[in-house]
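Task card 7
Instruction: Convert sequence to C-alpha cells.
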Amino acid sequence: MTPDDTAEATRSTARTFLELRLAGDTDGLAALFADTVDWMLAENPVVPWIRPRSTAAECAAQAAELARYTVPEDTRASVDAVLVDGTDAVLMGHLSGTVRATGKSFSGPFALRLTVEDGRITRHHLYENSASIAAACTP
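Output:
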C-alpha cells in the first residue's frame, strides 16, 4: 500500500467512525474498533461516561453511555478540521451538551487522535474541556 493509499484508508475509516457515532450505531462502532484499543480520555470521577476502556465493545458503548447521561436534543458536535498522516487522523472541533441529572451545560473544543490499522481503530485519544464537563456533572 502506498503512503497515499494508507492516508486515504485512514481518512475513510475516520469518516465512517463519525457516521456511526452520529447514528448511534454501537454494533457498527464495535466492528470498527480493533479487539484491543489504546483508549485515552482523562479520567474524571464525577463524569459517569468517562472511564478507562480497552475492548471494542467498551469503546463502542461510550456513545450510548454519553446519550444516557446527556440530553440528546442539546448535544452538538462540529468537526472543523481533519488532519491525516499515514495511519493517524486528528479531528478537531467543538462539542457541547447538557447533563441530564443536573440540567447544566458544558462546551469546549476537542481534538481526537485516531490510529487506524488494517481498517480498524487501534487508538482513540480524546482531548476535551474536562473542567467544563465536570462542572456540568456536579450538582
